[in-house]
Structures are given as C-alpha cells and as structure tokens.
TrEMBL record, chain A:
Protein name per Swiss-Prot or TrEMBL: Beta-carotene 15,15'-monooxygenase
Keyword vocabulary terms for this entry: Membrane, Transmembrane, Transmembrane helix
TM stretches of this protein: 7-26, 46-66, 87-107, 113-138, 150-167, 187-206
Keyword Transmembrane recorded: yes
Keyword Transferase annotated: no
Length: 214, 267
C-alpha cells in the first residue's frame, strides 16, 4: 500500500470520530431542533477538531511537480496543481463528516426533526465546506508567499482560533456564521460573499505563482 | 558527540518556535493582567492565580496548550528524518556507534521540546512577578478559581507552597513537550513525508481530544494531555490516569524507536 493512502486513512478515522462526537451529546429525552443543530455544528468541536484536521491534511500534501512548468511552459500550472490537489483532499474529508453525522442521526430518535430541517442542515454544512475552502486558500497563498509550510499553517490556524475567540466574545465573524441556525437564504447570501473571496484568493495565487522562483 | 548535535541544530526553526511560544505567552498576559492593572486588585490576585497554566478563562492559554505539541516539535524533532533523507546519517555511522547516534538524535529532540516549552512558560510566570504582588493564594479570597481535588493535582501543596507547585507544573508540562517532540521524531522514521512526522504530535492531541468526548473513562477522568498538563484543568483529572497516560506515551515512543531502528535505519 502506498504511504500516502496509509496516512490518509488516519485523517478519515479522525473526521469520522468528529462526526460521531457531534451527535454523541444528544442524550436528552425530548430534544428540540436547536439541540440537534448546536450539537452538530458546535464551534468548539469544529474549530478545535475539524478545521485543524483538514488544514493539516492539506498542508502535508502541498507539493507540485517542477517538471510540469517545463512541459506546459507557464508558471500558472503550479497554482492550478495545488488548488486541484487540495480540493481533492478537502471534499472527501467533508463528505465523510456529513455522511457520519447524517447516518448516526438517521438511526436515532431525532430522525424526524432532522428530516424536517434537512435542507437547512445541508445549507449550513455547505457553508462549512466554503469556510474550509477559504481557510485552505489562505494557506496556499501564504505558502506561495513565504515558501514555508509551517509558517502558512501557523498563521491560518491563528486566524481560525482568533475568530473562534471572537465568537466566544459574542462578536460574530463570518467564519462561525453557521453556529446559529439562520434562514437558508441568509446562508446563500453569505456563500456568495465567500465565493467572491475565494475567487479573489485564487487569482492572487495565480499571480503569485507567476513570480515564483523555482 | 554533544558538539555535533550543538552544530546540527537549525537556528531559524528554534527561533520560530520561541517566537510562537512568546507571542502566545504575551497574549495571555495582556488578556489576563489588563483588567487588574487598569482597575484595582480587589481580590488580592497574585502571579499564582493569574498565570498561563492556571488560567481557564482566557483564550491565550487554551491556544497555547492546544498548539503545544506543534511548538515543541518545531525546533529539533525533524533532525533525524532530514539526515535519513539526505544520507548524512550513513556518513556519521562510520565514526560513531549507531545506538549512541539514534539515542543522541532522540535526546536532542526531547531537549529541544523541553527547553522551548520551559522557557516560554517560565517567561510568562516570571513576568507576572513584575506586574502583580507576590501574595499567597487564599482559599476564600480566590475561590473564583474553583480549585478542588477534581481538577488540580496536589491541592494542599498549591495553598501551602504555590511557587513549588507552579515550578512542578512547568516541569511536568515541559516533560510532555519533550515527549511530544520525541514521539514526532519516532513517527518520522516510519513516514516518507517529513511533515507527517512534524504534525503527528498535534494530530495525536486532536485525536485524543475527540476520543475523550466519545469514549469516557469512569468518573469522566480526562486522558487528554490538553487537560492534564495544566495546573488547573477545565475537566476532571486524576493522578492515576495522568501517570498511566504518561507511561503509555513513553512506552509507545520507545517501541517505535526500537522497531524503527532495526527495520528502517539498520536493516
């Protein structure tokens, strides 16, 4: 078995555990929708568990082939390679997270509440995916800028933690917007903003890769 | 042999780890001491009731103890892997005994993690003596700390000799920093990617942190280093659980090193 798959399995196990931990606290006899929601999208669990795991998984695999620059005759290929590679790391991890909590909730007593508000929960988890992509985009930008995996990871995790503490101080940041159930259209509006930010960071990456020394 | 390792240490990574630790330590001081300095010291707070390790309320300490494995791993834990990749270790194996060499690498990793954590925590603790008076913590006046035998080890010693308790806490935490660093060095023998080894300490911390939510020990005693390496922890701790988890960590690291030596370095 290749070593990359061996290390990847560890990350999937951890993500599945995070999904299980979200639904583990649902022990009250008559849970409301708010209990279900706040247990699954617990900012404490997500900022200390989910985001660092995904950031570690993406920072470990931040590599590009220098030969491809010669083959395609442009430096842009570095940026596109890194974007695609991290996209294929993020999405399976995110999918395993939502599948875990969906399956555990579907076999529990709160199944009806979950199915009634299915679209809202899916919108919120889609918002989490956008936040993850945003954080990883910052990480990739910093990696192209500083050439150091460690520094890029440290700054990104600092952004994550600082926004978590702002959330704890009742100052709403857009990273932890999913912590309270909002209308689906509000999530869609925030997602549009997120897409604009992510495209800006993507263009920035392409521009940075053009000036990169190999 | 010690001269070789002294020359081998990469200065920039040591400075990076120290900068991270110092930033978090200073952040904690700003958060925790500012309200006392701007208003007044009504509850006769002292360094012993405010410093990094006893602080449960402010984010600086939580951030420090969450990132502690990574900060401890940065300075010296990747030296062995770098030398294995470049083939430099085979060059030294001609001159020195292999067992001594591997022991030296692991000890360097341990000392790097130990010293970085100890310096940052000692800096935080000592700088509080500049800001606040040196008073003994009182059972009733400082009851907002909620120190009991469920979340602190050796409570009677904390009220009788707070300085010794704090120094013991610093040494225990730096011991765990060193253990994380040597664990990362041991894991890195087995991995192809250098960064898998570097982040393995943080990964282990998050893994245990999540596992503690799902699988609970009797009486909810925490087995996460994030909880029990503090002087006062946010969840229930126990001396027995702490000792057993420290022992398990030491045994796991030793087995990984011994197996890795016979399978990956000398084969």
């Amino acid at each position: 078995m290749p070593s990359q798959i061996k290390t990847g399995v560890n990350f999937f196990i951890l993500i599945i555990l995070i999904g299980l931990a979200g639904t583990n606290l649902l022990t009250s006899s008559n849970p409301l929708f708010l209990d279900v929601y706040t247990n699954i999208f617990d900012p404490f669990l997500i900022s200390l568990g989910l985001f660092p795991t995904v950031l570690i998984a993406s920072v470990i695999n931040l590599e590009y082939r220098v030969n491809d620059v010669l083959l395609i005759r442009t430096h842009q290929v570095i940026a596109f390679q890194m974007m695609l590679k991290s996209f294929f790391i993020i999405v399976p991890l995110w999918l395993s997270w939502i599948l875990t909590f969906s399956f555990t909730v579907l076999f529990s007593e709160v199944k009806t509440i979950f199915l009634q508000n299915f679209s809202l929960i899916m919108f919120a988890s889609l918002y989490v995916l956008f936040v993850i992509i945003f954080l990883v985009a910052i990480e990739l930008n910093l990696y192209l800028f500083t050439n150091s995996k460690l520094v890029s990871f440290l700054i990104t995790i600092a952004i994550n933690f600082i926004s978590f503490f702002l959330y704890k101080a009742k100052i709403m940041t857009f990273i932890f917007y999913f912590s309270t159930p909002e209308l689906a259209i509000d999530f869609a509006q925030r997602m549009l903003l997120m897409i604009i930010l992510i495209t800006f960071l993507g263009f920035n990456m392409v521009k940075l890769s053009l000036r990169k020394d190999l | 042999m010690s001269i070789f390792f002294k020359l081998r240490i990469v200065r920039s990574s040591l400075i990076l780890a120290l900068i991270c630790g110092f930033l978090l330590a200073i952040l904690q001081i700003i958060q925790s001491a500012r309200p006392i300095l701007t208003n007044s010291n009504n509850f006769s707070d002292s360094p012993y009731t405010r410093w990094l390790s006893i602080d449960m309320f402010f984010s600086g300490s939580m951030m420090f103890f969450m990132l502690l494995p990574l900060i401890a791993c940065i300075p010296t834990s990747m030296l062995l892997k770098e030398d294995m990749d470049s083939g430099f270790i085979q060059q030294i194996q001609i001159r020195k005994r292999t067992d001594h060499l591997i022991l030296g690498y692991i000890l360097t990793a341990f000392l790097g993690g130990f010293l970085v954590i100890m310096i940052t925590m000692a800096f935080n603790f000592v700088s509080y003596f500049v800001l606040l008076p040196n008073l003994k913590p009182d059972n009733l006046l400082n009851s907002n700390l909620l120190i009991s035998d469920q979340n602190t080890l050796f409570v009677s010693m904390y009220y009788r000799h707070p300085l010794i308790h704090a120094i013991a806490s610093i040494i225990f935490t730096s011991l765990w920093g060193g253990l994380f660093a040597s664990f990362a060095a041991a894991i890195s023998i087995w991995c192809k990617n250098k960064f898998v080894g570097l982040f393995s300490g943080l990964f282990l911390q998050i893994f245990l942190f999540i596992l503690n939510i799902i699988i609970k020990l009797p009486d909810n005693h925490s087995y996460v280093p994030f909880d029990f390496i503090r002087e006062e922890s946010p969840s229930f701790i126990d001396l027995k659980t702490t000792m057993i988890s420290t022992l398990i960590m030491i045994i796991c690291t030793t087995i990984l090193i011994l197996k890795g030596r016979s399978k990956k370095i000398v084969w």
